[in-house]
Structures are given as C-alpha cells and as structure tokens.
Design a protein that fits this description.
Order of helices and strands: HHHHH
Largest sheet: none
Structural class: mainly alpha
Helix content: over 70%
Shape: globular
Distance between the termini: 8 Å
Number of helices: 5
Number of strands: 0
Length: 119
C-alpha cells in the first residue's frame, strides 16, 4: 500500500469509527442535533448501522496493516460507497436535504477503493 492510501483510508476510518461509535452508544435525543434522520429508523437498525461503520473502519486499516486478506480493504471501502449511496437516498426522501458530507464521503470511499486496488 502506498502513502496516499494510508492518508485517505486513515481519515475515512477515523470518521467512520467516530460516527459508528456515536450511533452505538448515544441515545436518539443526543444524536438528533447532528443527525435529523434518526427518528425515521428503528433504534436496533441505528445501532446495527453504527456497528457496521466500526467494522468497516477496521476493515480499511487492519487487513493491509497485517497483510492478511488485503482485498478486504477494497471491500470495506466499496461498502462505504454503497452505505453513502443509501444515506443520500435517506436524506433526499426526508426533510433533511443536506447531502454535501455524504457526497464527499462517497467520493473519498471511491478514491479509497481505487487506491486499494492499485499494485
């Protein structure tokens, strides 16, 4: 892996680890100011989404770091592209139309997929 991968994937992993941890440990009332959409999905789904984000963050970093199944890094990044595509749809179907962060995260995850598949 190259330096560009570690910079982009590291920042993406930090973001998703933080966001996932918030979704797992905080209540709806605590999340509502940051995430207006939390009332639209069941609490167990919100917790599961947080767990997926934490596991995806680990998937970006651990496989290339250990050299075990490095293809998992590109799979994790592709998973984040799909996750953000769904997030954009959720934002656009609700009253919260702020998707700038989601578009930026989609692009960053796509760049991470590309960097992970480079020799």
């Amino acid at each position: 892996m190259n330096i560009a991968y570690w910079i982009v994937a590291g920042l993406l992993a930090l973001f998703y680890f933080y966001a996932g941890t918030l979704k797992v440990i905080r209540s709806r009332d605590q999340l509502r100011p940051m995430m207006a959409w939390v009332d639209r999905i069941p609490l167990p789904a919100l917790r599961a989404l947080g767990a997926v984000e934490i596991l995806g963050a680990a998937g970006l970093v651990l496989p290339p770091l250990t050299g075990t199944a490095p293809w998992l890094a590109s799979a994790a990044a592709l998973g984040f592209v799909l996750l953000q595509t769904g997030a954009i749809a959720v934002h656009l179907t609700g009253e919260d139309r702020r998707i700038t962060l989601n578009v930026a995260l989609t692009a960053t995850a796509a760049v991470t997929v590309w960097l992970a598949t480079r020799p």
